[in-house]
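Today's session is about reading a structure prediction critically. Students often jump straight to the picture, but the first step is always the sequence itself: look for stretches that repeat, for charged clusters, for runs of hydrophobic residues. Only then move on to the predicted structure, which in these notes is written as discrete structure tokens rather than atom positions. Here is the chain we will use throughout the hour.
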Amino acid sequence: MAEVTTNTGTLDDIVFADRNKAYGAYALRKNYSKTIYRSLIIGSALFLLAMATPTIISVLKPEEQEQAMVEVDLMKLPPPPIDPNEPPPPPPPPVELPKVNTVKFLPPEVKPDEEVPEETPPPTVEELKEAVAAEKTQEGDPNAEEVIVAPEETAGPTKVEAAVEAAPKEEQIFTVVEQNPEFPGGMAALGQFLSKNIRYPPAASRANVSGRVFVSFVVNTDGSIQDVTVLKGLGFGTDEEAMRVVKAMPKWRPGKQSGRPVRVKYNLPINFQLE
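Below is the predicted structure for this chain, in token form.
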């Protein structure tokens, strides 16, 4: 009966049986499991150390911890509080208009017979050459120029020699409207315009400065841009570059309130990021 022998060698012993075990491959396979375990332990330790580093720094040096930057939508900020005890601003002083020569000449008015006053003859052509028709007769400066007043302040025709128009009232600037102004093509087109036209300032590039510049401007009723200012900048030429690009933008679609175009103050963040 043949003798049966049991081979209790490892897989490496079987593979390298009757071969040169002094070759490097046998040593690598022999120590493979130990190398994997050692690498796993070292990698886990380095990963845990990297995750705990910010916490360790904040505990050791809390006074040097940087404050977190919170992005705030300036369009949603509430208006500043109004002090009810603060007196209103005084009205502007009245403007005294120069007096001109006038002759009483009232337009005809239909009344009952008993209420009709004594008839007053109308002024002659010679009198109207030297004076202006008005509610009453008065003497004034013959060299003074006539000023056109509101219709409710006069009752008769006037002689127009030199009209002085009051300065038009500036339209109100809104911060919140029913329909916000929009760049032609929407926000995607605005992003393409900014990325195409912004030139990174050399000073900011050398100083490795990146971040956002918040620019404020007014979109007029015709879509033009006005009053461009920087609310929060980065310096190193980025503020000037942001203002230049905003001023170079085409006309926007104006904002609307109650269905009519109005002037709207708009805040725009412009991102400067080094590639």
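Discussion point for the tutorial: Helices lie at 11-15, 24-30, 32-60, 125-130, 186-197, 202-206, 238-247.
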